[in-house]
Design goal:
heterodimer; A: 403 residues; alpha/beta; Rossmann fold; 5-stranded parallel sheet; 19 helices; globular; B: 272 residues; alpha+beta; 8-stranded mixed sheet
């Protein structure tokens, strides 16, 4: 990526390689995952988004979010003002198909009014909605990067903006937690003292390369280990003494048993199937980047955990009161605690305690044999004595059945 | 469903032969879940560790101490005399629990001891026995172990350093740790119970009680016949039932063991 934005602070380590903010943006582009960059004013989030635009010369669009912008002005920006004059569906399709914008960057998205915001989200997802009909744009590849500083509004379910962001943005990163190092700011300041966001040179783009990587990533099969981890995050984290956190609805977490209040049971909700898809996609993209950087082997579990951190920290799954009271408001620290427990669940504490890894291997051996083995299935709990691993019974049975 | 390839390994474990390995280690096969589901709350029987069963458990215990804990001296505290296993300290009980868990049994937690007392199944008078640890802070006594445990507890989302925290030994694992003063360190497991215990504050030292609450902690009442001994500050200390049925939460010597120490274990409805 162009390097106007300077930041050598490590976001995570994966497969022995350090990954940085640029890599996260890269991963989102090749995974076609909408990215929201949250952060304080002047934290560099807009510059980071603008750097990404250099990949798509003449095929990216920059929108500055303003509360006085209406959809008409937005359509004017994308040369679609004719849409307002009531064309037939066919003409509209022809008009929208000419829009070949691949990347839409929206600075200060929270400033936009809901109607404009909705159209922007549609553009991120590759279509425009006119009169209740969706018209595709972007020639099969479109993605959005938005920025904003909205603090806790993410997690307020009553808040329209927070809900919209959770629904439409796949990855949310609070750049304040990955701030540039003093050596980075020294470079930035020594380079020039222009306080404005700079546009990268519109030299060689990488549209074809990114679209190719996206296609390859979408077609690549997902390792079973990652699917098990995703199923754990969907179903295992749903388990609690009351049966299901999802079914508890507003009674979670206050109605949990006392001992569950201090565990991950009271700290985090399960992820949605949609979020699980995003984190698998992000994990695959991060893996590819680490390999391009020289990684010799892949740790699927850790890759999923890093993706989980980036997808879930601001997705509304955390118990916000606990985040504020026990983790000083730091969502990443809270999600790290969930990851530590998840790691213990899967891997245990070492050779003497393999966690569930040995049982999962036994489950796979059973699947290979093609026959159900009650003793093996019971390793994951039973109907009478369910555990957070009971979901594996159904998972393994479905693999045997092949349905 | 799209075709899914079954790998040869998962999480570094070989798939081949995994069924045999998993089923051969019943403690590994116990599904990890929320703490209370690992200890049956009803239909529990309480027993001394004695007779043939006691001898067999002790043999297995000694093997484990040799193989996994390099014969750490703090673990060489049990003896078999008068047909009963004698001795008790925090480390010993954590390892004994490991042995018992393989058979679906566990060393009594504070709450189990109280139920046992209520039922009158065993006469606990004149003996003592560990049931938990009390973490009062990340400092001395037992600085290393206190900090180590505090970090694990904080990882689970609990705060440390305000009210004392009781961790029953039945949910703790023990690992060999050459950095630790006793070469041993406690490890939380998924079965670990973390109980805030303001009752064990130093200010309650000497207070009387007759009964304990749902966590096995004293409910104070004037004129009670049992005593809480809690004049300790900071660090990590033992929690054990005292010979007079009082509750001791002030002893910082985690390794010392006496001949009056006895193991009470719990089993779900089946006598050994």
């Amino acid at each position: 990526m162009p390097d106007i934005y300077q930041n050598s602070t490590e976001v995570c380590q994966l497969n022995g390689e350090s990954l940085y903010m640029h890599d996260v943006v890269d991963a989102c582009l090749r995974g076609r995952l909408n990215l929201f960059l949250q952060g304080d004013t002047g934290s560099g989030k807009t510059q980071l988004a603008r750097d990404a635009m250099a990949y798509f010369p003449n095929k990216s669009m920059f929108v500055l979010g303003r509360n006085d912008m209406d959809t008409r002005e937005l359509f004017q920006q994308i040369n679609l003002e004719k849409l307002r004059t009531g064309k037939s569906s066919e003409e509209l399709r022809e008009l929208t198909s000419k829009i070949d914008t691949n990347l839409i960057v929206v600075d200060e998205l929270p400033n936009c009014v809901p109607a404009v915001r909705a159209q922007l989200f549609n553009l991120f997802d590759g279509f425009i909605e006119i009169g209740g009909k969706a018209y595709p744009i972007g020639n099969g590849y479109s993605v959005g990067i938005a920025t904003g500083n909205i603090g806790q509004q993410f997690t307020e379910s009553s808040n329209d903006l927070g809900r919209a962001l959770k629904d439409r943005m796949h990855v949310v990163v609070d750049v304040d937690y990955f701030a540039p190092k003093p050596s980075d700011t020294l470079k930035i300041l020594a380079g020039n003292t222009n306080p404005r966001v700079e546009f990268g040179s519109e030299g060689e783009g990488k549209i074809e390369e990114i679209c190719f990587k996206y296609k390859a990533l979408s077609e690549k099969s997902v390792p079973l280990e990652k699917l098990f981890v995703a199923n754990y995050l969907i179903h295992g984290l749903d388990y609690c003494s009351k049966g299901s956190k999802r079914e508890m609805k507003g009674a979670w977490p206050t109605q949990l048993e006392n001992h569950e209040q201090g565990m991950d049971t009271g700290l985090v909700l399960p992820v949605s199937t949609r979020a699980a898809k995003s984190l698998i996609r992000l994990s695959q993209a991060l893996d590819d980047i680490s390999i391009e950087k020289g990684a010799k082997s892949q740790d699927y579990f850790e890759s999923m955990m890093q993706a989980y951190k980036l997808v879930s920290a601001y997705s509304g799954v955390l118990n916000e009161a606990d985040v504020q009271n026990k983790y000083d408001g730091n969502h990443y620290s809270a999600i790290d605690a969930v990851i530590a427990t998840t790691r213990q669940q899967f891997r245990g504490n070492g050779n003497d305690d393999p966690g569930q890894s040995e049982n999962l291997a036994a489950g796979l051996e059973m699947v290979r044999s093609g026959k159900k083995n009650k003793k093996v299935l019971d390793l994951f709990g039973t109907k009478q004595n369910p555990t957070r691993w009971t979901f594996m019974r159904d998972t393994l049975e479905s693999l045997i059945g092949g349905d | 469903m799209p075709k899914i390839i079954i790998p040869d390994k998962i999480l570094g474990r070989s798939v081949e032969g995994a069924i045999e390995r998993a089923l051969a280690n019943p403690d590994h096969s116990t599904p990890t879940s929320s703490p209370t589901t690992n200890f049956s709350a009803s239909n529990v029987e309480y027993n001394w560790l004695e007779g043939d069963f006691g001898r067999q458990v002790l043999e297995e215990y000694n093997q484990l101490v040799q193989n996994e804990y390099q014969n750490a001296s703090a673990l060489q505290k049990l003896s078999f005399a008068d047909d009963v296993v004698k001795g008790s300290n925090s480390f010993v009980f954590a390892v004994l629990n490991k042995v018992l868990r393989k058979q679906g049994k566990w060393v009594a937690r504070p709450v189990d001891l109280e139920k046992c007392l209520k039922e009158g199944t065993l006469d606990l008078n004149g003996t003592y026995g560990d049931s938990g640890l009390v973490l009062r802070g990340e400092n001395d006594p037992n600085l290393y172990l206190a900090q180590n445990l505090a970090t694990q507890i904080q990882t689970k989302g609990y705060s440390v350093g305000e009210d004392p925290i009781v961790i029953p030994l039945a949910g703790l694992d023990l690992v060999y740790d050459s950095s630790s003063p006793h070469n041993l360190a406690f490890q939380l497991t998924d079965s670990s119970e973390i109980i805030y215990a303001p009752q064990l504050n130093k200010s309650n030292h000497g207070k009387k009680f007759n009964h304990r609450d749902d966590n096995g902690l004293p409910v104070f009442e004037e004129g009670g016949s049992r005593t809480l001994y809690s004049n300790a500050e900071g660090g990590l200390i033992r929690l054990y039932r005292y010979w007079d049925l009082g509750l001791n939460a002030r002893n910082d010597d985690l390794a010392v063991s006496g001949v009056n120490g006895r193991v009470v274990f719990c089993a779900e409805g089946i006598a050994p």
